[in-house]
Amino acid sequence: MKLSIQCDWCGKEFVRDAAQLKGKKHHFCCRQCLADFSNKAKNPDGYDSLKDFTNISKNMIQINERMNPSRMTKETRKKLREAHLGKGECTGYSKIYSRLAHRVIAEKILGRPLKPEEVVHHRDGNRYNNIPENLVVFPSVGEHTRFHSELRCFLRELERLEVENAETK
Asked: Which tens digit of pLDDT belongs to each residue from 54-110?
């Protein structure tokens, strides 16, 4: 069955078979209109709607696992991790196989995976000190923020008392 449709770029009417239109988001009368619509300089607003890049990395990981299943074995991951250890500037949190080390250690302490909303706090404030005694798990970001707020209030009160004691002596 033939259908008459309008080109998304130039607006020209053209005829296509219904099977050719199925599943397509945009329709063009010629290759030049497709090229112009796909050109970021000629069509900065429509360019973003042409392709959907959401979850593309997840899709690539699945494709890589299917096409090359022996690539990222545990042994390979271990070699890569050891090769990269000590190479960075250590400006972020330490990681174990691309996962935040403090979260991995907290999961082992709890014996279950952490929920996405749970926050792991370092008691001494040192993000590299991941010994189990230094880690506390808060159920939410709100609880973690409330803890820090109460701690700041406590420290201010402590300073005020120290100043008062110094003035009375």
From this structure: 777 778 888 888 888 888 788 888 888 888 877 877 777 888 888 899 999 999 999
How far is it, in rounded angstroms, from Cα 134 to Cα 129? 7
- Whether pTM > 0.70 for this model: the answer is no
Q: What is the pLDDT of residues 102-132, one digit of tens each?
A: 999 999 999 999 999 999 999 998 988 999 9
User: 10 phi and psi, to 5 degrees?
Assistant: -100, -15
Residue 161 tokens read as: 């008392």
Would you give the DSSP letter of residue 74? H
- In terms of C-beta distances under 8 Å and separation of at least 24 residues, what long-range contacts does 95-101 make, across chains too? 101/130
Rounded Cα distance, 36 and 51, in Å: 14
Domain edges within the chain: 2-50, 90-160
- Using a 10 angstrom Cβ sphere, with 0-12 exposed, 13-18 middle and 19 or more buried, the burial of residue 102 is buried
Q: In the numeric block, which tokens belong to residue 110?
A: 């709890």
**CA-based nearest residue to 121, from 103, 99, 98, 95:** 103
